[in-house]
Amino acid sequence: MSNRPRYVLDTNIIVSALLFKDKPPRQALDRARNLGIILMSRLIWQEIKEVLARPKFERYITSSEKIYF
Description:
The chain is mainly alpha-helical. Helix content is about 50%, strand content about 10%. Strands 1-2 form a two-stranded parallel ribbon. The chain is globular, with a radius of gyration of 13 Å.
């Protein structure tokens, strides 16, 4: 098993990181990816998909991009 650090990021951090590339949440996500392992439950993954499906996020993420979530 790896000795790399493990990170758990909440939905707000992940969604902000996906939508805003130059903000601190993206820096945190990138750092976690580069230094360790990101852990995510199915519930958090489902919540991310539900949040990104909200109409207010349509200006940030296209329907075709949502397929990947």
